[in-house]
Amino acid sequence: MTAAGRKRKSSVMSVQVYEVRDSQYDRGDTGERRSGAFEEKKEKGVVEAGWLRKQGVLSYDPGYTNTACCTSRITYLDGERGILRYRGYPIEQLAGKSSFLEVAYTLYYGELPTEQDLRLYETNVAAHRTPHNDLVKIISNGFRSDAHPMGVLASTMMAMGTLYPEANPALRGNHVYESHKVREKQVFRILGTMPLLVANIYRSQNGLAPMVGFDTGDMNFTESFLCALNWVEGKQYKPNKKLARAMDVLFVLHADHELNCSTATMRQLTSSGVDVYTSVAASIGALYGPLHGGATEAVLKMLERIKSVDNIPAFLDAVKNREEKLMGFGHRVYRNYDPRAKIIKKIAYEVFEEVGQVDPLIDLATELERAALTDEYFAKRKLYPNVDFYSGLIYKAIGFPTEFFPCLFAIGRTAGWLAHWNEFLEDPEKKIARPMQLYKGHGKRDYIEVFSRWGKRRNSRISSRVLARRFKK
User: According to its UniProt record, which residues of this chain constitute the active site (predicted)?
Assistant: First the structure.
C-alpha cells in the first residue's frame, strides 16, 4: 500500500481501492488528519497497481494520463478548479510577494525560509555564477552558429557533469547522494550556473564576447541574468527593475508543475542512479519538445501567421477543420483557466507599458482569447489559455529571440527538477523506473534463411530471386 491512501474494506467491481485522504495515512480511529497535498481530492479513489499485478491484470494507460508513479509533497494541482500551489502556498501569493530563489528554496526544503536562511541560500547560489572555462569554450566553439539554443544548453549541461566526477554515483558509488551537503552543493551549482550558460549561448549567437564572471553587486538572481546578457567590459549596465521583476515572476510561475514530461524525465533518469547533471540535461531535452517547452515559441509564430484581428474568424474555422492548431490553449491537466495564464496576462500589459510600445500581437492575442472563449466549439472542449499563451509576448517585448524562449522556461523549471530529484532520493519506495508494455506483435515464428524469403519487402523493389542471383555472382 502506498502512502497516498488508506485501504477500504469494500471493493469496487472486484478492484481494491484506496481512499485518497492525505499525503499520509489517517491517524488511527481518531478521525484526525493533517491538511496536505491530497486532502481536496479525498472523494477520489486510487487503485494499488501491485494488487492488480497479483490478479494478473495490466493497466493500459498511454501517456500515463491516469497513473500516479509516486507520492509527492511538492506541488498541488487541481485542474478542474484551476488551483496551483507550491508546498501548499497559492501560486497567486508567491507570484505577487515572493522571489524566484525564495520559491526554489521552498520547493526544495518544503518551507518558506527565514530571512537569514534566504540570504545564505542566495549567497550559495551566487557563488556559482561564474561558469567553468571549459563550458564557456564548448558554447563558443563547439556548435554550429545556427544551432538551436536548447540543443546547446542540453549538451553543455551534460558536459558539465564530467567536470565534477566526485558527484557522480557511476564513478563514486551509489552512496554519493546520501550526503545532504553533497546534494545541496549540486543544487547551488546548477541553479547558479544555469542562467550564465543561457547568457553565454545568447552572447555567442549574437557575436558578443563570452561572459565568464563579473561583480553583480547587490543584484538579485534575475537582475544578474539580464546583466550577463548585456554586459560589456568597461561599461556599467543596470537592468530595468520592472522588467527584471516581470522575468522573476515568470521564473516563479514556471518553477514547477507537478509531474509534467520534463519532471517525469528527471525522476526516471534519477531512478537509474545517474548523476544529477545528466538528469537535468535529459529534462532540458524533454522541455525542448514543441509540445512542452517549445509551445511558447509556437504561440508567437501562430499569432504572426494570423497577422490581423480580421483574420481570427477564418483562423478559428481552420482550427475546427483541423487545418490549423490553436497553440497556447488547452492543457492535459487543466479543465479551467490556467491560474498562471491570468497572472502572465496582467504582466504582459505592464511590460508593454514599461517598454513604451504596444505590440499589435498583444491586441491580437487578447481578441483571439475572447473569440475562442465565446465560441461554443472551444467552450465545450474546455479550451482555456495556458501558461504559454502570453509568455512569449513578454519575452519578445524584453528583447529575446523566439528560439530562446524554451531556455528561459528551463531556467525557472530547474528549481522544480531539483526539488523532485531530492524528493526521489529521499523516497523509501523509490525504485528504477521500468514501465510495462502491452505487446501487440507477432506470435512465435521461425527464422527463414534470406534466400528463401518471398513476398513484398518494405523499402525495396528487388525480388528475392534477383537478390539470390546477385549474391551467387
Answer: 331, 388
